[in-house]
Design goal:
The protein has about 400 residues and is an alpha/beta fold. The chain folds into 2 domains: about 5-45 and about 300-400, Aspartate Aminotransferase, domain 1 (Alpha-Beta Complex); about 45-295, 3-Layer(aba) Sandwich (Aspartate Aminotransferase, domain 2). The protein is built from 13 helices and 12 strands. The protein has a 7-stranded mixed beta sheet, sandwiched between helices. It starts with 13 loop residues before the first helix and ends with a helix.
Length: about 400
């Protein structure tokens, strides 16, 4: 049987590879502490679940849901965004419901790239960003993220020959996997750069709420927001931004998100989506509406929870003399590996889960510039995270 050549670029995946390693460890009776996947262990809020449950008894929600049937959700998303960032959004032309933001980042290249066009991607970066480009038969130019540059790309390093063939740039801050944040001034530079070179600017924005305020802000109960790309592109001239309910509202399994941005980009993505799927079940959108319009104290509890976990985990790593910086955002810790493993992050992760049952994500799985790092997902209570660090310490002593 003969398959398309594009599948050759989709053979490996950091999460799938770790799933195999975890299965082997389980078969050898290891108890798994899984820090490899950024899937929140926290529950969705009761008012969200109640809105979905109530929908089940409404027979009018049981059929196909086309675009115009999503009007109430699009209105809620537009009002939520305008309230948070002070920018007007037209729910008819500038909002599109998605089955998670990953759907948007995977499908948009089909609307933007012709075969052979370049997409400028963060390296390291989230794997689905590359996957969508490969599906569109595009080329990838990786923009290296270095610690000395605060894990921000340097646009001036992109070769002119690549720029001439580039049609889209994908950013994502707060960043997975490095946990870096980007100031509004960086986004302003990105908007100007993309406008100058006629490049679509994509911003994947699932961690907008998971930003940890400084101690002074905590005392005043201030809300700390990451900037939106559209604050740097108020006219929505080149930009589209993807939002997810997976992190802020603990709705990862419900598969719901949305895009906001340039109306031409929204329209093009809508045309792709119309071929691939209808929308998700209306009851899930009702739950998402409840999340956007309802009490937001659950979001703050999430932030407080992940800050507590971050502090416990990083302090535990420091106690075993693994020095990592304190992340300012996300649910991850991005850690430079000890010298012995600095060129073999995949081998480190495979051996670690084999010997201890602690599963983490190899930096190399997020791109070439991720080699020498591992990503820890803080998806367990502090006591379990500290137990994981104890096991990691034993492993490091064993292989030293």
């Amino acid at each position: 049987m003969q398959f398309a050549k594009r599948l050759e670029s989709l053979q490996s995946n950091v999460f799938a590879d770790m799933d195999i390693a975890k299965a082997k460890a389980l078969a050898n009776n290891r108890q798994i502490i899984d820090l490899s996947l950024g899937s929140s262990d926290l529950p969705a809020e009761n008012h969200v679940i109640e809105a979905i449950a109530k929908s089940l008894d409404d027979r009018s929600t049981h059929g196909y849901l086309l675009f115009h049937g999503t009007q109430e959700f699009r209105q809620a998303a537009a009002e939520w965004y305008s309230l948070r960032f002070g920018i007007f959004v037209d729910p008819e032309t500038e909002v599109l419901p998605l089955i998670g933001s990953q759907e948007g980042t995977a499908h948009l290249p089909l609307a933007v790239l012709n075969p052979g066009d370049f997409a400028l991607l963060l390296d390291p970066g989230y794997p689905s960003h590359a996957g969508g480009v490969y599906l569109a038969s595009g080329q990838i130019y990786p923009m290296p993220l270095r610690q000395e540059n605060d894990f921000l790309p340097v646009f001036e390093e992109i070769p002119p020959t690549v720029l001439a063939q580039s049609r889209m740039m994908v950013l994502s801050y707060p960043h997975n996997p490095t946990a870096a944040i980007a100031p509004l001034s960086f986004f302003e530079k990105a908007v100007s750069f993309c406008g100058q070179h006629n490049i679509v600017l994509v911003h994947d924005f699932p961690y907008l709420d998971l930003v940890f305020p400084a101690e002074s802000a905590q005392k005043t109960n201030s809300v700390c927001l990451a900037p939106s790309i559209l604050q740097a592109d108020m006219e929505k001239s080149v930009s589209i931004e993807f939002f997810s309910f997976s992190k802020s509202y603990n709705m990862g399994g419900f598969r719901v998100g949305f895009a906001i941005g340039n109306r031409e980009l929204i329209g093009a993505l809508r045309r792709i989506k119309a071929i691939v799927d209808f929308n998700q079940y209306r009851g899930i959108l009702n739950g998402a509406i409840a999340a956007l319009n309802g009490e937001q104290s659950g979001v703050k509890r999430n932030v407080d929870c992940f800050r507590e976990r971050r502090d416990a985990f990083v302090n535990a790593l420091h106690r075993i003399d693994w020095q990592v910086p304190m992340p300012q955002a996300t649910m991850y810790v991005w850690a430079k590996l000890p010298e012995l493993w600095s060129q073999n992050s995949i081998g480190f992760c495979q051996k670690l889960v084999e010997y201890t049952g602690v599963a983490v994500a190899a930096g190399a799985g997020f791109g070439k510039s991720g080699e020498g790092y591992v990503r820890f997902a803080l998806v367990h209570e502090p006591s379990i995270l500290e137990t994981a660090v104890d096991k990691i310490s034993q492993f490091l002593q064993l292989v030293d």
